[in-house]
Amino acid sequence: VLEPLRAQNYVVVVPAKSSERTVFALEKFTIPDDKQLVIEVAEKDGGRHQSFVVENEDIVRANVIDELSIQ
Predict the structure, then answer these.
(1) 8/24 Cα distance (integer angstroms)
(2) What is the dihedral of CA 25, 12, 53, 21, to 10 degrees?
(3) Cβ–Cβ under 8 Å, residues 14 and 23
(4) CB half-sphere exposure, 1, CA atoms < 13 A
(5) pTM > 0.70
(6) Rounded CA gap, 26 and 48, in Å?
(7) Is the separation of the CB atoms in 52 and 46 below 8 Å?
(8) Exposure string for 19-56, b = 16+ CB within 10 A, e = fewer
């Protein structure tokens, strides 16, 4: 389990028929070629569940954020 170091625009409730975007910052890491990072989001007391896979190639192509402006 990886714990985020920071979060920008972290929300715990998303109203119906709306969307939100949160950015989580993690410590620098790599994923071996035979492994995957699976990110899962589940609705509390609900049936909706989303997951997606991040591969090492995605992390290698990511941009470094030197400064994160928090509003």
Answers:
(1) 7
(2) -70
(3) no
(4) 2
(5) no
(6) 25
(7) no
(8) eeeeeeeeeeeeeeeeeeeeeeeeeeeeeeeeeeeeeb
Which residues, listed in sequence order, are joined to residue 25 by a DSSP beta bridge?
6
For residue 61, the one-letter residue type is: R
Among 41, 38, 40, which Cα is nearest to 58's? 38
User: What is the per-residue pLDDT across 15-47, written as a single tens digit (0 to 9) for each?
Assistant: 889 988 888 888 888 788 888 889 888 888 878
The whole-number pLDDT of residue 64 equals: 76
What's the 3-state SS for 27-56? CCCCCCCCCCEEEEEECCCCCCEEEEEECH
What is the rounded end-to-end Cα distance, in angstroms, of the chain?
Answer: 28
